[in-house]
Amino acid sequence: MPKVKRSRKPPPDGWELIEPTLDELDQKMREELYEYCIRESYADKNLIAKWKKQGYENLCCLRCIQTRDTNFGTNCICRVPKGKLEVGRIIECTHCGCRGCSG
Amino acid sequence: MATSLGSNTYNRQNWEDSDFPILCQTCLGENPYIRMTKEKYGKECKICARPFTVFRWCPGVRMRFKKTEVCQTCSKMKNVCQTCLLDLEYGLPIQVRDTGMSIKDDMPRSDVNKEYYTQNMEREIQNSDGTRLVGMLGKAQNPSDMLLKLARPTPYYKRNRPHICSFWVKGECKRGEECPYRHEKPTDPDDPLADQNIKDRYYGINDPVADKLLKRSSSMPRLDPPEDKSITTLYIGGLGESLTDSELRNHFYQYGEIRTITLVQRQQCAFIQFATRQGAELAAEKTFNKLIINGRRLAVKWGRSQAAKGTDVKDGFDEMGTGLEPVPGLPTTLPPPPALEEEAPANYFNLDPSSSPALMNISLPPPPGLSNPLPPGFGAPMFHPMGPPPPPPMALRPPGHIHYPSQDPQRMGAHAAIRHSD
Fold this sequence. Notes:
InterPro entries (chain B): Cwc2/Slt11, Nucleotide-bd_a/b_plait_sf, RBD_domain_sf, RRM_dom, STL11/RBM22-like_N, Znf-CCCH_RBM22, Znf_CCCH, Znf_CCCH_sf
Pfam families (chain B): RRM_1, STL11_N, zf-CCCH_RBM22
Strand content of chain A: under 5%
Largest sheet of chain B: 4 strands, antiparallel
Order of helices and strands of chain B: HEEEHHHHHHHHEHEEHEEE
Subcellular location (chain A): Nucleus
Oligomer: heterodimer
GO cellular component, one term (chain A): spliceosomal complex
Pfam families (chain A): BUD31 (PF01125)
Number of strands of chain A: 0
């Protein structure tokens, strides 16, 4: 995996249990294995498909862009970029508790 | 309840179905763009317990979502907003508005009585043309100035704020920053305004907000007529530049006939004496704390009785319009009636109680020598059913003898003068 900037803070409990697994995933993942995981629903195919679109790279979940779930046919509040949301208040969306997945 | 959502679903045809709510500006909020949801038969009306269309919208940022609480029939019966139950015109509680307009609306409040009444009112509303108010409110006409004074000039959006977070009050709010409810000190439970009840507010009984407002209005400054019934003069102060006789006259003639106007330039005041006590009282009522001439609010008070008036009368008899002589021959003011503790019933004519009843039927003879000044321009004498011959036309009258402002040819509305002087 390419070099990712991580925080210097110490990780919370349980990190020691999952760190070896994550490292193995990083090392062993290949394209064939990836497609297998997607086929067998170990990964959410639809969500990953959205991440490939421009503007949806950080999408929290699929429910938050489902317009049929809202009263007025809009997206969830977490999809509003922070700059446009002039309130300056913390918003947690009701579906997944996301605090802003665009912008 | 016979017509409520749960029990009687066979009456569904008569349930309310409306496509726009009846709301006041404050409830709708400051944003002119609103998205509103409509839910047919969403809830029971809080007053009549019948299903109705619930509308729900957000009145602004950081406001709670408001929804209609009472049905359209209940709201039309009292002419109030469907959510806040305040009058649509004044924004005042129902009790205050009814007191101000002297409306006594006794709607039944219990069980079947209430259902029957609302059913009938609904039919009446349906059959009416929708422009006039149904019920007691349609008859009351006079726009009350007490209500205008009590009404808020600007909308009060604090009403739309979210409710207090009860978890935060206990110290247990886990949501923290993102909690939509208010993290503030709750209102004092001992405050009488704390226990309000929607039914009490709607029927106009026992409403603490209304009581507070009414108490405030009764303590506002008022001008009471003096006990001495012969006083018909008003003191008008704070005139300044508009200290002209004609200005005052042009305004005060509408309340009644003005006998004299006395201007005191030095003290920027005037005394207006009316011919009738009712005229003076009407003028006082309509102008006290209200009249504004040339941008100044005039101070209006009662003058003292005839004998006691101390300020020097301006030498205004030369000036056109002031110092009109009283019409000769009219009856002077009557003596005040005797005190009301008399035993004799209805002794209007001050007759001897032992006189025969036949005398009671005689009407008063016409006042002696009632002179009837003709408007200028009328040549033919006026037909006078009372008997005395009509007086000569105005041209023959000695000049300067005008008794009423309408005789003054310089005034607006007067016919062309036959007068030779001036």
